[in-house]
Amino acid sequence: MTPPGATAEAAAGTGRAIALPRPRAATLGRGIVAGYLGLVVLIPLAAVVARSTAGDWSEFAAAITNQQAVAALKLTLAASLIVVLVNALAGTAIAWVLVRDEVPGKRLVNTVIDLPFALPTIVAGLTLLALYGGHNPLGVDVAYTRTSVVLALLFVTLPFVVRAVQPVLLELDREMEEAAASLGASPLATFRRIVLPSLWPAILAGGALAFARSVGEFGSVVLLSGSQPFKTEVASVFIYGQVESGNTTGAAAVSVVLLAISLLILVGFSLLARRSLRHAG
Amino acid sequence: MNAANPRQQRPARGASRRPRARFALAALLALALAGAVAACGASTSANGGKIALVAYSTPEKAYDALIPAFQKTPEGKGASFTTSFGASGDQSRAVEAGQPADVVEFSLEPDMQRLVDAGIVPADWNQNRYHGFVTDSVVTFIVRKGNPKGIHTWDDLVKPGVEVIVPNPFQSGGARWDIMAAYGAQLNEGKSPAQAQAYLKELFQHVPVQPASANDALSAFTNGKGDVLLDYENDALEAQAAGASVDYVIPDDTIKIENPIATTKDAPQQAKDFVKFLYTPEAQQIFADQGYRPVVPSVFQRNADRFPTPPGLFTIDDLGGWDKVSTEFFDPENGIVAGIERDLGVATQ
After folding, report:
1. What is the ipTM of this complex?
2. In chain A, whose CA is at the least distance from the CA of B27?
3. Across the strands, what pairs with B293?
4. Chain B, 63-122: which have a CB under 8 Å from a chain A CB?
5. Would residue A262 count as lying in a domain?
6. Minimal Cα–Cα distance from B171 to chain A, Å?
7. Residues of the domain holding A168
8. Do A195 and A208 belong to one domain?
9. A79, A91, A134, B103 — which has fewest CB within 10 A?
10. Are residues A64 and A177 in the same domain?
11. Does the distance separating the beta carbons of B27 and A38 come in below 8 Å?
């Protein structure tokens, strides 16, 4: 789940002509990929799904229609959508500045962008708590509110869009923009008609990963949100509570809902990205 | 990588078998490797002659002192330990799932019962003079330095404008002690069970955040949230020792917290000697120095000025025991506390 992977996917659309590997090596490679994916990803996911239906379907239905679970899922989705929108904008802008502008300290910023990935999210939560809590130097007290949930998610998902858009911008042929400008297109029109269509798949890919990450994020929100049921309790924290209370079936059921939502978003964004690639091509 | 899916040419007849065989072979190999890794993980229960101690998080510092003290005794000569500390429920579930353990200590009895049910801890673990408990504590009110809001009784917690921090009882097993202290105190005051439940509901209206663990709750409190934190006496003492600017109040009516310890069925003799050592005056004094109430009467007497006994002290057994309380109050679907959270939550949405 790293942005470079997403970038590769987005960028691969422009370079379809890849030399065919030799059949034998390809088969061996595919076998390893299938075996590895099965072991590391698919079997655990299947186990979660199996666990969620360990009882009967009515138990599953009861678990996911539990009022507290529904409230937590709603909050998680709403916060994640806000976070994706904001970070799609901000991430693209940051990538633009990093690639196109000569600003002092650019290298430093470029390095710092990835730090939210490196920081254990529980430490991020603790730091944000000190920053936004009662005794903070900023004079804002938003800890333990829904705003704090969004702030925590903004922090941990920032790198996704930046790192997805940045390499595409680097590869972008500037002659097209120059041609557009020399034909009289305004900078805004050039950006909208020439640059944005090329960036769009990368923004979508980064946004999809940011969304998936937001939906499952635990460490940074568990401290900062105060996990007040119906108010600031997100889905992952609710699930944690179910596990701690010995209700593993309920926990798995709500997890399956999260997985399904993430899958839908990933597939949906990927379809959108493909469509915009066709239009751009 | 969907865009780069090379449409592979169908290999000539006759050659078609081998690639498929290789595919299967590679997948099989990967599976076998994983199986081997899993098998290795399962067969390390012997633990190389070391005593595996698995405990909840707060007594870690006490064990830092207790283990060297044990190693100085004749029974403890040459003993070496592996230790693991974490949230009580998590630790219990880990041992249930196969984490090697010779000595287990938890913050509350249901976590021990889980291992008895799983056949890992013998059913007679609590058949000693101290009923299997190695340390005690009480639920206290941690307040701001100087107690500016004048918090002394349970009724003070539900006065207008008072904010109370309680960890989420569904995420923190330890928080269940706090809730049961509040409930039992009401019964002690002569209220009916229905009135005591009404008090719990009123109390939760004063709870602005429900952190996921006692530790998270303490950091929320020291970060400036709330007027009162419901927490254990040993945590209060530790927070003061760590320099936090807090006081604490022991209410007249409160619950006696009892922390269970046991050796597992396959534990070596030295592990059993270690648990026996923990009941010696020397070890109990180390616990006392870390803020725990000693269970051995003579050591408790020696430290009585540090640990005043409130007049209305009661135990979980006075409320029917953990078995009854867990179902009645903390069932995540039908428990009384789940209902209170739901009523308040739906009302504020």
Report:
1. 0.70
2. A35
3. B136
4. 87, 89-90
5. yes
6. 4
7. 56-280
8. yes
9. A134
10. yes
11. yes
